[in-house]
Each structure stands twice: as C-alpha cells, then as structure tokens.
Amino acid sequence: MTTSSARDEVLARIGHALSSAPVPVEVPRAYRRTGAHSPGAPELLHLLTDRLVDYRATVHAASPQTLESVLATVLGGLNRVVVPPGLPVRWRPAQAVVDNGTLSPAELDCVDAVLTACTAAAADTGTIVLDGSPDQGRRAITLVPDRHICVVHAAQVVQTVPELLARVDPRRPLTFISGPSATSDIELQRVEGVHGPRTLIVVLVADE
Predict the structure, then answer these.
(1) CA 169, 173, 177, 182 torsion: positive or negative?
(2) Cβ contacts of residue 125 below 8 Å, gap of 6+?
(3) Lowest CB count within 10 Å: 16, 28, 57, 63, which one?
(4) How many CB atoms are located within 10 Å of the residue 7 CB?
C-alpha cells in the first residue's frame, strides 16, 4: 500500500465516522457543588491551614488589626521584595520593588521574595488562585522568585473546587497554587522549586 492510498483510506474512514453527527452525551453533574460551611467559616480556615501545612507551606494567622505587623515579621530580613502595582501600600515593606512589567526573568530570579494578594482559595484541596489582578500582578512575578508570600482573607476561602471556580473568570490568566512548586517525576523523589517558588508562605487573615 502506497503512502497516498494509506492516507486516502484513513481520511475515508474519518469521513465515514463523521458522516452522521453523534448524539451528544449528557455529562453527569452529580458531584458536590457546595460545601457544608459558608465562605470564611472557622472550619474552612482550619482545613485550609491543615492542607497547606501538609503541602509543606508555612501559614501565619493574622487579623485585620495585626496583618501589617505579621507581614513585617514575615518580611523581616528580606532585602528585595517584588510587589504588584496594585498591592496596598500599607502592606509593602520599605525595600519593596514595584513590578512595572519590565523586570526580566533574570532580575526576578535574584529577588528575595514576591508579596501578593489572591483571588480565592478552596479549603478542600488547599488551593489558592491568582488571576492577574493589580494586587496579584503578572504571572511571571509569582513563578520565577523562589519565595512567594500570599495574603488570603477569610472571605475568599470557600470549601469546594466548584465554589472556587464560580469565583474566578476563566478568561483571565489563572494560576492555581497548592503548596510550594514540587514534582516527583524522577524516581518518585520529591524536588521542590522546579515549576515555581520553592517556598510558599501564606498569611491567613481571619474576620474580626
């Protein structure tokens, strides 16, 4: 059989398979779409903390009144911290470098940390989502630096992934974070910092 005839046969089979439109299959939606707790409930904050710690992230508890002091402690000793342009000024350390979109990957690789807010988080999976908003910045600043410090407010924490997805815009550049970047592709040996920050520090702000 020549290459031409083999190709013709394959195309003919494809055409025959597509000649009658298949009946759409209904996708089952019986999975759980909402959690047992409302967003920001203490049970969810406890569960999110447990998941993050299990992923080897560090979690610091804060309140609206102590947030700035907790951030000052977490940022203590860091000489160069990149922040997105929309991050609240009161959160920024004195040594903050505001990202204007021109910092190169090589420059980002040399900073001590990046400090951002987030869009939402799911307690069930310990997942935090960034969407590129002004207080979160472009994707590069949260993937290249070796340390990511992320502020998560209680009202942003939901229980399930469907609830999380309902809070994000799929048209935005979404980054899903479940602990520090890690892989076990090579001989099942865990290696951190391959696809993103080696260290994830979450400041979880409870309601008053």
Answers:
(1) positive
(2) 51, 161, 178
(3) 28
(4) 11
Sign of CA dihedral 72, 196, 180, 51: positive
Paired strand residues for 153: 205
Q: What is the pLDDT along the chain (208 residues), one digit of tens a residue?
A: 556 788 889 988 888 877 777 778 888 888 888 889 999 999 999 999 999 999 999 999 999 999 999 999 999 989 999 999 999 999 999 889 999 999 999 999 999 999 999 999 999 999 999 999 999 999 999 999 999 999 999 999 999 999 999 999 999 999 999 988 666 666 666 666 566 788 999 999 998 7
Question: Beta strands 120-122 and 127-130: pairing type?
Answer: antiparallel
Q: Residue 27: count other Cβ atoms within 10 Å of its Cβ.
A: 5
Tokens of 50: 């447990």
Tokens (6 digits) for 110: 């040399």
Please work out, in degrees rounded to the nearest 5, the angle formed at the alpha carbon of residue 127 by the alpha carbons of 190 and 39. Answer: 155
Distance between CA atoms of residues 62 and 40, nearest Å: 14
Going by C-alpha positions, the residue among 161, 201, 196 that lies closest to residue 181 is: 196
Of 41, 52, 55, nearest to 163 by C-alpha is 41
Q: Which two tokens stand for residue 28?
A: 């089952």
